[in-house]
Amino acid sequence: MNNPLNMDLRARAELLAYLVSGHLLARQLTGDWLSPDHVVESTTLWMRRNGAGADVMQRVMLSSRALEVAQVLETAQLPVFTPDMVTTLFCENLRLDFRSETARAIYQHRLTRLVATRWF
Question: Could you tell me the superkingdom of the organism this chain comes from (predicted)?
């Protein structure tokens, strides 16, 4: 099935939040960031679950930003990004758990940055 290119600003922010959260969780559990293979797999999984479509360049741009953001958030001195909070990012079905303050903060951070950079 070929999805149209339909990722609006909020969808891009949610995908970025999902990938950033995945990086932070992997770092917390294993000490390493997600491998490139895992990032591709996570991106594909998110896009299928959400019926999203993006060309290769858009997927690469989004996924490469995710690691940069995760690295910045890991060292940020913000109370919402503590190691203990990272484990609350996902539901049992591996979707972002927006009941988590941390997940909401990461999503809002990404949405705000996308708007600020005019990356529509």
Answer: Bacteria
